[in-house]
Amino acid sequence: GENVEQHPSTLSVQEGDSAVIKCTYSDSASNYFPWYKQELGKRPQLIIDIRSNVGEKKDQRIAVTLNKTAKHFSLHITETQPEDSAVYFCATKYYGGSQGNLIFGKGTKLSVKP
Amino acid sequence: KAGVTQTPRYLIKTRGQQVTLSCSPISGHRSVSWYQQTPGQGLQFLFEYFSETQRNKGNFPGRFSGRQFSNSRSEMNVSTLELGDSALYLCASSLPGLSLNTGELFFGEGSRLTVL
Q1: Does the pLDDT at position B65 exceed 80?
Q2: Distance from CA of A72 to the nearest CA of B (A)
């Protein structure tokens, strides 16, 4: 089945710095790559996603890049703020089943120090 | 629109018991997925239901089962509980996706199960 590896597991940055989280996947058939943010004690929520026919997507301070050849994608957060502190999960849509399901990485705990 | 609702929010069981968790999806969402969240293991896929049928299943033992009702509400059951089953169980609903539809997952707040 699909395997999604996410690095680093923890990341600490100063407010205003950039943060980068990387994920690799194994199944070349995966074609959808979302990122979810989970604040402490809250539910995961989608923050940005990218499809396999696009190399990069931006939304204000966050961006995601995809390298299909190398099978990896990354989340970039610029000008980090304390409210960016959370656990971030990458995911791929794996089509081992008939309709596909999201397989998540193990998460990155981002801490932004004021 | 009401979000995904999970009940109960917290529960404590002892080894060997069984538990049933409930999930009510967002109105109009027909796909319901279940995930187990534990520290360090992230979100592990349990199974997905659509129109009362299990479409996908993760790598969990047969003690973990689920079902979906005609109103799209879903339940999952864990029998013969083990200490390692202690986790946050998250339910997520989505609109059924066409091949080009991403199918964003909308998560509930989860049911936190503690097995003693």
Answers
A1: yes
A2: 18
